[in-house]
Predict the 3D structure of the following.
Amino acid sequence: DIVMTQSPDSLAVSLGERATIDCQSSQSVFYSSNNKNYLAWYQQKPGQPPKLLIYWASIRESGVPERFSGSGFGSDFTLTISGLQAEDVAVYYCQQYYSSWTFGQGTKVEIK
Amino acid sequence: EVQVLESGGGLVQPGGSLRLSCAASGFIFSSYAMNWVRQTPGKGLEWVSGISGDGDSTYYADSVKGRFTISRDNSKNTLYLQMNSLRVEDTAVYYCAKDPGDHPSWFDHWGQGTLVTVSS
């Protein structure tokens, strides 16, 4: 199985500042035949199910605020929240769907 | 509006069985793959099983292969997970999650989850 490792496990960011979460896969999740990275990001708030934010590593799901962006290639990916809002407090997960389906361990984002 | 609603969770003894259901609405159910994903405080999110829109293709995590069976009834817009030989480590919140297409990939809509507790 492809192991997904996120860093850090938690971070505290001031309102309006940038939050950056990294996700590394144990092998590449890039498929050269269609030039796509098989990587998604989710947000989970307390007591709620996960919510899709990003797929194909950088495509924002409909309705997701523009302050959320995804980047990366191959085995190294980043979720950036530009201008943290109070409602962004949550746990964020990356997920690969290149080979079976596995998630990172999660990164908890709090307000400093 | 897309909605998926799980049911069937509860307390069961080790070695027992349970069947989860997921009622779907707001989309053409047969056109989309569906999945079960579970979550525990200790192990986080774990994909459990997936099924194609027509039900012909099924996928399982190694941890449940041979014990769990995923199925769907497209006439009833319902997804199922039959869980046999349950273990303590199967204790989790089980989510039903919809795919954006016919083959499992990412999960664009999730239910609220149903809690399964395996304990004597």
Observations:
- The interface with chain A takes residues 35, 44-47, 50, 59, 61-62, 95, 100, 104-113 of chain B (CB under 8 Å).
- The first strand of chain B starts at residue 3 and ends at 7.
- The mean pLDDT of chain B is 96.
